[in-house]
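Homework help board

Subject: predicted structure for assignment chain

Our instructor gave us this sequence and asked us to write out the predicted structure in C-alpha cell form, then describe one feature. I got the C-alpha cells but I'm not sure how to describe them. Can anyone check?
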Amino acid sequence: MQQGLPQRDIARGLHITQSAISQALTKAESKGVKPIPEGFSGASPHEIAERYAAGDIDRNEMIRQLSAWPYAKAPDNTEQLAMEWKAILPPNPPGTFEEVGEAFDRGLIDGDAYDIILDAAEDAPDLP
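My C-alpha cell output:
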C-alpha cells in the first residue's frame, strides 16, 4: 500500500514506530481492507454513501463519485434461479451497483440521487 504520506511521517505524527504502522497496514490488507482509489472518498460505493450521510462530503460530490465508480459486474444467477425457484444465492462481490441500492434502502442516499447515479451507471461500459 504505497499511497499518501510516508509511513515514517505518519508514525512521527502519531508518536509510534514506523514498524507499528507497517504492521497495522499489513494486518488491514490481510483482512481485505482496500485502499481508497484516487479521486474517491471511500474504498467502496457503500463507504462513499456513508461518508455523505455523515456529512463528510456534499451531495454533488457523492453523486459525482458514485457516478464515476468502476462498478464490478454482478454475477448472472438466471440459470440457478430457473432451476431452483427458492435458490439461495451467494452475495454479490464487493463493488457492484448493488451497494448503491443498499445505501438507498438504508436511507444513506435519496431517491433522486439514486436515479442520477443509476443513469450514469447504465451509460458506463461493463467491467469484468
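Reply (TA_rk): Your C-alpha cells look well-formed. For the description, you could write something like this. Residues 86 and 122 are 29 Å apart (CA to CA). That's the kind of observation they're looking for.
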